[in-house]
Design goal:
alpha+beta; 6-stranded antiparallel β-sheet; elongated
Amino acid sequence: MDRYEISPYGGLMLIENFPITEKLSVGISEHISRNVYKVDENLGGLSFWSADFFWEYGIGAYVSFWGFSLEFRYGREIGTSNNRFNFMLNYLFGLKEKTAEYKKAYKQYVALYVEMVEQKKRLKWLIQERNRGEDVTEEEIEEETRRFRELIDAVNRQRMKVRELKKR
């Protein structure tokens, strides 16, 4: 599973996740980002902290288990030869175990969704056949349309059920 994140401060991260089990996964990341570090400036004998921005590109690797992740990341500043190494331990608060009821409801949702997509293809095909002059009656199209609408309603009801179970 791949995903990417775009930072509002500038940057892009591509994350490639490889699930091993339901709770354990490993992955790699690539990034280009705009970062900041503290600079001790001495202006006329007055010393104060300020910030200096820089762009960085790099890669990382992580292992994640039930809300905990251990990550190592390497970054190189663009335009200079400054290397940065980061080692992070993270924890995701509020992570809930998916219940058997939720998993069952989600599988039913996916099955209904797939059936709805197939029904849509069948309806589209029947309409195309009728437009080509093939022997397709209006009753057939109306019946397939009715079935398609029923599936849309069933998918929406199941989606709401899944959302409710996820909140618990």
